[in-house]
Structures
1.
Amino acid sequence: MKFTKIHHVAIICSDYQKSKSFYVNVLGLKPVREVYREERNSYKLDLEVNGHYQIELFSFPDPPKRPSYPEAAGLRHLAFAIENIEEAVSHLKQHGITAEEIRIDPLTGKKFTFFSDPDGLPIEIYEG
């Protein structure tokens, strides 16, 4: 088996409009396609990261809660590469989002930090 890339990451949100606004208006991801699936009472929004379709945002009625902090078993977090972490943290702050203190990766010397989406999903931004 030879993988060529990660195709997408699927995120189920508890408040579709709130999460859609967060990912589109705050993080700046570009909507590619939005569909409502009546048989599932569910929206699906495909989002683009820097010209590549990579995020699927779903709504489902009453999704179960899941542990979502970075050290929980399972998928640890979603990480985005960024050119200027200070600018990104300032942008988040302007939107009322608090990021953790910027840290330095001891192995690469690169800056990184974490913040959360509206459902508490840990998101990392990594400079470089």
2.
Amino acid sequence: MKTNLVANCHKAITNYIHHTPVLSSSLINDIVGAELFFKCENFQRAGSYKIRGATNAILNLSEEQKSKGVVTHSSGNFAQALSLAAKSIGIRAYIVMPTSAPQVKMEAVKQYEGDIILCEPTLEAREKTAQDIVDKTGATFIHPSNNTNVIIGQGTAAFELLNKHANLDAIFCPVGGGGLIAGTCLAVNSHQNGCLVYGAEPFEADDAYRSLISGKIETNDTTNTIADGLKTQLGDKNFPIIKEHVSSIIRVTEEDIIEAMQLVWERMKIIIEPSSAVTVAATIKSKLLVKGKKVGIVISGGNVDLAKLPF
């Protein structure tokens, strides 16, 4: 996969996305002992980086495919992203969501005019329901993370970060389905500057950590984590990129995640979702690894039910 695809993708989607700010905090810098640059995708359209990949995937469809719409299964952020991207481009989006999905995310999908189809909260139920819609409507299925055009699109967040801060020593980002970190690897490779990529995961959903060790895609028996966006597993399109380019994955506890959410709120005055706080927590935990270095942190999203803040 040619790394210049990320730059070309950025040109294609630029009118459909926000070029989100990069913020910093001198106090958090002091805590970590490094110079941190937060790429704030919590300010992105639909509240997360996922609008990037969703838009790129739709733009790469044929006109006939667009006329029949798109379908995905998602517990939240990609559901919102694909709905909004489809609305912006003028096509229909069918969104399969588990009954356990946060109500705030279901309401957002409705606001973006996505057609919600509920299913049982299992991967098997999600996949079967999505396939039924494909069979019935002819809509194109777009996987939230294991889709080449989605992966390339997600890489544009790191692409923007590196365009602003080209001399980063490392970039940390969360790992759920693997689309964001795989895209980040492609963006970093296109800059050829020696920047390392680190992943962040909860101990309660550490399938990517174990996958890097075993060399094959692992699964989770349970996913008892507050980071609801990181409960999915890697796929055959993104794992080879991750396996080749990710330096390591740092795991954090549920307490670490909540403390990081609170720290960012108190010191930066922004709300980030638990899946983003995993990355902040992993950076704090990696003080010895990043001491004295310039580090990018991808804040993946800010879609939080404010009535259920954990701190």
3.
Amino acid sequence: MDLKIVNPEIQRFINANIDKNITKLALQKNPFPEVEWIVVLNQIEAKTKAKLKLPTWFAAENIVYPSKISVEQTSSEKTASFKASLISGESLIDLTGGFGVDDFYFAKKMKAVAHCEINQELSQIVQHNFEQLKVKNITCHSGDSLTILTELNTKWDWIYIDPSRRNDAKGKVFMLKDCLPNVPEHLDFLFEHSNSILIKTAPLLDISAGLSELKNVKAIHIVALENEVKELLWELHKDYSGKTSIKTVNLVKDKTDTFEFILDDASENPKYGLPDNYLYEPNSAIMKSGGFDEVGNFFNLNKLHKHSHLYTNTSPISFPGRVFEIENAFPYHKNEMKTHLEKQQLNITTRNFPDSVESIRKKWKIKDGGNRYCFFTTDENDNKIVLICRKLQ
């Protein structure tokens, strides 16, 4: 790692060009011949990406960034902080350290954190950055993490792994065995070094597929940020043999919405009903969880249709998702559409409906936007219906 990039003059130039057009900057002559121009441009681009995602790094002086892609792929500070809330004890080893954002937050909860990274240059960058951030309880190790785990010969309170998909696995169904490290293959070995393991995977991983590859799964945390699912966290404990809890969390600006249920627990059949006064749409974390009957039963709501995943009742309640007041409901017929919606401006959502949002807009000349919301869906009698709503939450 070349630390010439932290030269004060170069750092001032980088900070002065945050949010600037990199393509235009690339056409300029390099004012710093001691450093490659592409390296300076990469720092500008990566730091720009970090502005909202990694405000602690962005605000600190003399931080060195890896590639823009590495910054894009790393955890945000908000999701890293949530992960740290799941662990306890004194020691943790991260087998896939990356840019170190998760470890920064783990270090706030643990006395000792080990950061393992196979890329030597990235390991050096992370160690440098931790020094700038004045973090003193993280030790950086470069090399194969499973070898490091063996050589350290320590019993850790937690092992954390964010396995990456192998290049030769492109086009295949996303399975943990297709990632590095191969967690299912090495699970017994990992449990020799810790009784508790936290695995981060992309939302692309199917929950049932993950459960088929793993064992001792106590909980699966589905983490959304501003209603976009960012990661699945698999909590494994060596001696656990009970049922798996599904815990959904949506981290939003002013609150955190949570909902949880026990997977495969016998639950009562959902209640169905036609649209009433209010409409409820679960957040993306609940949608990923598949707990459609569980959320309706827990909040005592009527479901519009088995496959619509929309709910209704007579009085508004606090709900982990979007809440609407239904102003009008009518069948999806030509005359009704011409009367109520043609050439209007609406936010459109489709749930269990044959036509796409784009085709509906085109067919009925509906503009996007405004403060009215329109749901095209199917009711319990298999009739196609339209709901015009006002958003409450």
